Amino acid sequence: MSMWVKALLRRLKLNIRMKLLSGFLIVVVLLAFISMYSLNQINTMSESAEEIDQVWVPGITLLGTLNGDISNVERLALSIIVERWEWDYGIKGGLGATHNQDR
Known about the structure:
- This protein is mainly alpha-helical.
- The chain has three helices and no strands.
- 86% of the residues lie in helices and 0% in strands.
């Protein structure tokens, strides 16, 4: 230990009561500091969660809807191609069956 710390300890001459009291006081101060820091972090996380809920989730939902719509366009386009092919070649059954009966 440095010389000034030794001099300070000799000067204070702490008895057991003061040592215990200072130890508990240090624990309480650390507990208060950690509690305030934790509450600050919880508040920051709450703000981030609010942003995710208000901004990101609706966008992700919209992307899912767009993905489904694009899949439907592809399915409908293929259905039209198959129906047109059946119509052109006079194939009975399948998607063009109603058109074939008119011929």
